[in-house]
Design a protein that fits this description.
Radius of gyration: 25 Å
Largest sheet: 4 strands, antiparallel
CATH topology of the domain at 28-269 and 577-602: D-Maltodextrin-Binding Protein, domain 2
Oligomer: single chain
Shape: globular
Strand content: 15-25%
Number of helices: 21
CATH architecture of the domain at 28-269 and 577-602: 3-Layer(aba) Sandwich
CATH class of the domain at 28-269 and 577-602: Alpha Beta
Helix content: 25-40%
Length: 624
């Protein structure tokens, strides 16, 4: 779970997507994928069995394969396994057959003597379950694999852990519970293979340099340093004919501005733009700049039900109070306030400026969401999207913002809490000021609350708790210590993000039970009704019945106003020479970072070309 920055990248000023000639005329190398990392967010781990950082995945997803992968449409398929697995009747035992004659290669691209075998997956899981290795996947594995928790805590034997190499090409998992979606867990590094014979040689030096690793992915790692990484196509890869780039590089960039400059010179395959740069460069490069999802987290506003402010702690228990706050939150207003002339009304602005605001809303729709689980995450056997099921359909594809409801709930809350709660209720919100746009976005959100509530000054007030993670601007006063605020429950509202760990809505919804990590960290909510609903739903094996039951759980959370979901991923402007719709699609794990199958252009993509790729993609996806 990560602390979520307040609406940073999605709160951008958007230019109109015009068609026309190329404004960037560089030529791009279609045989080399030229990637970059930022000084503020470098690739700092090669250990795919330990790290769960998306930045590391840009490299690791391409040099090591797991049992399964996802295609460009998000469909699960076999990778090192020949298919997506064979569960028993109650899905408590799964078997996989490995591809024949797949070899590990070294950092020179040479085929080693080591075949990828079922025992490599056993050794990988044992590595993850060794506490000294500090794998970020240990808790996930302990939860789903039988005997794993006892082994990890020293109370059980390895022989009792639910993973078995039946023979060199047959792998069997025994689970702690029925799990019809277990194969989606296998996208995560914690279930990836480790060549046991090689590990016995390198020991603690494993994954500390290219020479101390072996590779079975699309590429092998040939050079690794702080400033530059180089990887080369693995000719022994099981599907080498689908790998279009001969090699790839990842170079260090000081910031997004430097990356954009390098892209304009043809030295990178793509680049994201900072908010300020997107605004300043729009007139020069608007034929090429388009919005793209940069991160892949479900984002939501939550409350602290254990707040050390007794007044807020009483108020937040009231349904109407929470629903008033939910109904008054307008994510679209943030975009509008970032438009060309934020001080001007529509009547005072040109038709072109108003049109650009409309485009703002249209382009951000695919990132905006009012459900916790993203659209397209999972479907029923009849191909119905989970978010359209049952009561959850009431929140799918809509905005929760409703001025009339907000004021009605406000009046109801003030009546019900009269004599118990002192109004206005103060709401403390922690905000990181490392990026000034975060604070500006929060201020816009607060301003919109004031505009929406007819008696805002009598209902709520906001207190912004500014903190810094990096060296703070000396002009910023009254900074708070974030850890002290959180540990003392000295906050009332915050924004969090949740990354999917596997392909079932429970990856999100399990966070809200009394023992859920998100709940225990930020919310401290106790609702026995929700706990019971989730427990019952989570126990259902039949896919369609399960999804319908979980949809009711999610609808309950939103109906009660416990959360305000507002987006999936963060959007940033991008320029690129790559067809984004040829990438693997997915919500979790290393696999959707693979370069396998993607196509490149020798020139900078225009918005018009990007839209054509999107149309073709959607047509093909719908015809599956």
């Amino acid at each position: 779970m990560k602390k979520m920055k307040w609406l940073v990248a999605i709160c951008l000023f958007l230019s109109a997507c015009s068609s026309g000639g190329r404004q960037i005329t560089a030529t791009y190398d279609t045989s080399t994928f030229k990637d970059y990392m930022l000084e503020s967010d470098p690739i700092d781990s090669l250990n795919y069995l330990v790290t769960s950082d998306d930045t590391d995945f840009h490299l690791l997803g391409n040099i090591v394969d797991g049992l399964v992968e996802e295609d460009r449409y998000g469909n699960l398929s076999g990778a090192l396994a020949t298919d997506t697995g064979r569960p028993n009747e109650d899905a408590t035992v799964w078997e996989f057959t490995l591809r024949d004659q797949v070899y590990w290669v070294n950092s020179q691209g040479e085929t080693t003597e080591y075949l990828v075998t079922a025992d490599d997956f056993v050794r990988g899981l044992q590595y993850v379950l060794t506490p000294a290795n500090q794998s970020s996947y240990a808790s996930q594995v302990r939860d789903i694999i039988a005997g794993a928790d006892a082994y990890y805590t020293g109370q059980g034997e390895w022989a009792d852990v639910g993973i078995t190499a039946v023979d060199s090409r047959t792998l069997r998992f025994t689970l702690t519970r029925s799990c019809s979606y277990f194969n989606s867990y296998l996208l995560n590094g914690g279930f990836y293979p480790l060549c046991g014979a090689f590990y016995d040689i390198v020991g603690a030096n494993f994954a500390t340099s290219p020479e101390n690793m072996l590779y079975n992915g699309c590429y092998y790692l040939s050079e690794y340093s702080t400033n530059e990484i180089h990887y080369v196509k693995n000719s022994a890869y099981w599907q080498a004919d689908q790998v279009n780039f001969d090699e790839g590089t990842i170079v260090m960039m000081e910031n997004e501005e430097a990356a954009f400059e390098a892209f304009r010179e043809g030295d990178l395959s793509y680049a994201y733009l900072s908010t300020n740069e997107a605004i300043s460069e729009r007139s020069s490069y608007d034929h090429h700049m388009y919005l793209d999802t940069k991160t892949y987290d479900s984002q939501m506003i939550t409350y602290n039900f254990a707040s050390n402010d007794a007044n807020f702690a009483l108020a937040i228990q009231n349904d109407a109070f929470r629903l008033a706050l939910q109904s008054a939150f307008d994510i679209y207003s943030v975009f509008e306030l970032e438009s060309t002339d934020s001080a001007a009304s529509n009547e005072e602005r040109s038709d072109e400026q108003v049109t650009e605001d409309a485009l703002t809303k249209n382009q951000t729709t695919e990132s905006y969401q009012s459900t916790i689980t993203p659209t397209g995450f999972v479907s029923t056997t009849n191909n119905l999207d989970y978010v359209t099921l049952g009561s959850l359909a009431n929140y799918s594809g809509i905005s929760l913002y409703d001025v009339s409801k907000a004021n009605a709930y406000m009046e109801q809350a003030m009546q019900e809490l009269s004599g118990t709660v002192s109004f206005p209720v103060n709401i403390r919100i922690p905000i990181c000021v490392d990026d000034s746009s975060d604070l500006a976005a929060l201020q816009r959100v607060i301003s919109k609350y004031s505009e929406t509530f007819e008696q805002a000054d009598q209902f709520i007030t906001f207190e912004v708790l500014m903190y810094a993670q990096n060296e703070a601007d000396s002009s910023i006063e009254n900074l708070v210590d974030y850890d002290s605020v959180m540990n003392s429950n000295g906050y009332d509202m915050t924004v969090v993000s949740k990354h999917a760990e596997y392909g079932d809505p429970s990856t999100y919804l399990g966070e809200f039970v009394s023992t859920g990590h998100l709940n225990a960290t930020y919310m401290h909510l106790e609702d026995p009704i929700y706990d019971s609903l989730f427990t019952q739903s989570h126990a259902i094996v039949d896919l369609d019945s399960r999804l319908n039951a979980l949809a009711e759980c999610e609808a309950y959370l939103i109906e009660k106003g416990y959360v305000i979901p507002f987006g999936y991923g963060t959007l940033s402007y991008k320029v690129s020479s790559i067809n984004d719709y040829s990438y693997a699609r997915g919500f979790s794990g290393l696999a959707h970072f693979k370069l396998k199958g993607i196509t490149a252009l020798s020139n900078c993509l225009t918005v018009e070309e990007k839209n054509e790729f999107q149309t073709t993609y959607e047509t093909n996806k719908n015809s599956q």
